[in-house]
Amino acid sequence: VEDIKRIDKDYIKYFQSEAKLMPYTWAVIRIDGCHFHKFADVHKFEKPNDEQALKLMNECAVGVLDEFREVIFSYGVSDEYSFILKRSSHLQRTNPSDIVSSVVSLFTSMYVMKWKAFFPLTDLVCQPSFDGRVVCYPSTEILRDYLSWRQVDCHINNQYNTCFWMLVKSGKSRSDAQQILKGTQSQEKMELLANNFGIDYNTIGEMLRLGSSAFWEEENGCSKIVVQHCNIIDDGFWGAHPCILA
Ligand code: ATP
Ligand code: ATP
Ligand code: MG
Ligand code: MG
Ligand code: MG
Ligand code: MG
Fold it and tell me: Whose CA is nearest to atom 15 of ligand 1?
């Protein structure tokens, strides 16, 4: 031990050095469930959308916001969640692997701890895991484009999945359903749902169509974390919440 004490610590730490989060940019940590296609099958998630599974994801996101106060907004859909860090937070925490691994492990352990509350009748039979990455966006405009991209993705996937599973549930094989939907535009999918199944796509639950946003909101002088299902592409939401991306 006395010998080892003589080793120059800076020399050892040199190997740890790595890129830091770019200062004064919007850092977004996105986590995504690993192999959730299988995880959803094993735990018999409802298709196309298991609402309890989405609510469990939202609850875990609320836990992340509560623990990491530098997260000012988050957006989730399917098995993913994006957490946006306050720009000034780069002064406190700059090591990307530290922050990503902390968020991912907290999210995962919350998912396990809260499972029973959302799935009282289903045992957790294989362990959920999530991967995570952080990307820095240099302007608010680009951050808004990032969020719009995720919400558009939610819309496109949900519209496709709604059609696919209605076709399958009505007796079509999976490959037939795939063939029917191949190359269809949004309008054609809306018509397919209306004409064949009497479904008006726009009346499907907001959480499924729009995804979920969890963020801090002022209410009667005290702030609390809320989960809303709103359009985050248009200016309306951001105009009504000017403090979030201030
Ligand atoms: P990877 O490990 O590469 O992320 P994955 O199987 O998790 O693979 P994703 O592209 O992340 O693939 O897609 C997540 C999948 O999880 C969906 O395609 C769907 O099958 C399933 N899934 C996630 N959440 C739900 C839900 N709430 N209801 C039903 N199915 C869900
Ligand atoms: P950070 O979040 O920055 O890592 P920390 O409180 O986890 O803060 P560490 O430097 O990681 O601080 O130190 C871990 C601390 O956890 C130890 O100082 C000790 O107090 C406690 N600890 C960890 N493992 C044990 C153990 N097996 N028995 C008793 N105490 C432990
Ligand atoms: Mg993945
Ligand atoms: Mg996944
Ligand atoms: Mg995913
Ligand atoms: Mg630590």
Answer: 37
Mean pLDDT computed over every residue of the chain: 94
pLDDT at position 238:
98
Between 62 and 88, whose confidence is greater? 62
Rounded Cα distance, 188 and 154, in Å:
18
Contacts of 243 by beta carbon, 8 Å cutoff, 6+ apart: 218
Cα–ligand 2 centroid distance for 109 (angstroms): 18
What is the distance, to the nearest Å, from the Cα of residue 240 to the centroid of all Cα atoms in its chain?
22
Determine whether the shortest distance from the Cβ of 215 to ligand 1 is under 6 A: no
In this predicted structure, what is the pLDDT of residue 15?
84
> Which pair of tokens denotes residue 84?
């946006």
Ligand 1 atom nearest the C-alpha of 57 is: 27
Sorted by where each starts, the structural domains of the chain and their CATH numbers stand as: 20-153+210-240 (3.30.70.3000)
Tens digit of pLDDT for each residue in 212-222? 999 999 888 99
Q: How many CB atoms sit inside 10 A of residue 120's CB?
A: 8
- In short, whether 53's Cβ falls inside 6 Å of ligand 1 is yes
Q: How many CB atoms lie within 10 A of CB 161?
A: 16
DSSP at 78:
T
| Tokens found for residue 4 | 């080892």
Q: Is the CB of 133 under 6 A from ligand 1?
A: no
Q: Is the CB of 44 under 6 A from ligand 1?
A: no
